[in-house]
């Protein structure tokens, strides 16, 4: 499968498993799962056909492991703007996690910290490299360091998704370290 097709199928899955399942008549269960056959039929009925091999290729080759397959069901690993309960248990984070962003967001982040915006949780990366890639999707990346040890000590809850993304409700500004300006 060529890269353009892979991206197209991945974007379709993200849109309908994370944000707008109703656009193609899908109903996700409380955990965000839907039957693969139901998803494929709904997408086809709305003008976008893909094969099971294409779906499997997207699931297995996605570098961010955005999707999880369990038996005959599929779901997005995290990043939902629709109401789901991923059933992830609280977890003890490493001492530091990272968040990739761009300069135009820094003033708001300094004032308000990291907020989930249209998602359920703030997404944090386990390493600087991943955070850099995340930030680079929106421009020149800036990586913030999050003092997750202090947050955890202060009672903030963390969960980790199947693909290694750390999730928390919000990150107040006092737990953030900003890089020195250049």
Automatic annotation (TrEMBL):
EC code: 2.7.1.-
An annotated Gene Ontology molecular function: transferase activity
InterPro entries: Ptrans_KptA/Tpt1 (IPR002745), RNA_2'-PTrans_C (IPR042081), RNA_2'-PTrans_KptA (IPR022928), RNA_2'-PTrans_N (IPR042080)
Enzyme class at the top of the EC tree: transferase
Keyword terms, alphabetized: NAD, Transferase
Highest taxon of the lineage: Bacteria
Family per similarity comment: Belongs to the KptA/TPT1 family.
Function per UniProt: Removes the 2'-phosphate from RNA via an intermediate in which the phosphate is ADP-ribosylated by NAD followed by a presumed transesterification to release the RNA and generate ADP-ribose 1''-2''-cyclic phosphate (APPR>P). May function as an ADP-ribosylase.
Stated name of the protein: Probable RNA 2'-phosphotransferase
Native source organism of the sequence: Streptomyces violaceus (Streptomyces venezuelae)
